[in-house]
User: What shape does this take?
Amino acid sequence: MTKVPESKTDRPPGMKSLLSRRNMLIGIVGVAGGGAVIGGATGVFSSNAEPAGSRGQVTLYKNPQCDCCEAYASYLGQHGFAVKVIPTNDLTVMGEKHGIPDSQSPCHISLIGGYVVGGHIPVEVIDRLLTEKPQITGINLPGMPTGTPGMTGPKAPLTIYEIGKGSPKVYATV
Assistant: This one.
């Protein structure tokens, strides 16, 4: 049977430093845990949020003077995408290159996961696109509808079209 030390003087050599290290580690873990609780309670960070960029890269092409496109880029960033914004005056040409008719020009054009995503499309629809991986060029929301991510105002039903061969078809209504 092993004798349990009853006082500091009864401890084997080296035991004192082991206890000190253990107490120090317990203290560090306690401080980190307390910081996590306080940070989560104050909204500094969310323990269940995905880190920025963990969902993939997005290249967003926008008109240099458009502020709503910056707000949409921020929206994508808040949903875990790493967004690179490139100002351009060639959105119409880019839209044509990717199969978006002039009559359905979006506010901006994003390249996400191998797809073209035109306009202020909610992330739920982008998630569906990236999960289903349909054989299309991408999806498009024409114009600048109010109430969409990056746009102020009341939300109205949105019709999002698929970009592919032939005329645009409805991809989603949200």
